[in-house]
Amino acid sequence: MSDERELLLEVEHLCKWFPQKRGIIDAAQKKEKKYLKAVNDVSFKIYKGENLGLVGESGCGKSTLARTILRLYEPTSGTIKLRGTDISHMKGEALRKIRPQMQMIFQDPYSSLNPRMSVYDTVAEMLKVHKVVPDNEIPAQVEKLLTMSGLTMDIAQRFPGEFSGGQRQRIGIARALSLNPAFIVADEPVSALDVSIQAQIINLLAQLQDELDLTVLFISHDLRVVRHITHRVMVMYLGSNVEVGPTEEIFDRPAHPYTQVLTKAAPKLDPLDRNREYAIEGEPPSPINTPSGCKFHPRCPHCTDKCRTEVPELLEIAPGRLCACHYPLI
After folding, report:
1. pTM higher than 0.85, yes or no?
2. CA 233: distance to chain centroid?
3. By C-alpha distance, which of 223, 148, 164 is closest to 196?
4. What per-residue confidence (pLDDT) applies to 1?
């Protein structure tokens, strides 16, 4: 992705810490309050029309980062700029006006839709509340959105409980597109679906992105999907981003030891390939008590004394490639 494209979202040194309750003894001894550092000093950019993949182990902070960017969580520190406007600490009417520009496709299509609202009302409500089109044009707009999402108006008066997971996710996509958002977060949009349906939803998202020039933050555990649908990839580990770069380069020549192990440990389609040479050793440390120096050093095969004591900065190691490692592998 060229930097000459329009910069849509810029995140700088973003943190989201959750305070932990202290026990009676800790409070009496006036021990320092502890925080779960779900997102800790994350910086990145997304350009208009780009699909940025976000990957990492469960619990690394992917969903918390997404919800903080969308202002569903209040940032602890750092800045979030949407089209140059700082939305980090917007409140009240100012935040309500900016919200239509940021929409989310949720992970679970079974809980993200109101079971008491028909498909028509689910999509039309967004159009009415935000006055996207005149009232007399709402039916035509609902039909357009459903058609774009691979559905028809024949299902408009039915309810979410009557549909499969794939159909519900298509309804969720239609709802997310209803406000013509500048930015969409797709948080594990296919992980709750049958494998046979996942490809259909992924192909639909890819088609819509091409047709509508959508800007997407795509969160997924499935690295094969990320490689198929994204332009660039950001890798998170224990609340921080450790590598960012073009998708093919990240997969073909990973620079961070964690990225290297993560990509090579991805499940293979060949049932006879049971090679565990690249399996990641151990469990991630607690985000409440993070290791000193590089957070990955307890699990890194290339760890040195410097890694144990000095925190690596996220630096450019090649054009378009950022890596937070003292000894990048390229």
Report:
1. yes
2. 11
3. 164
4. 44
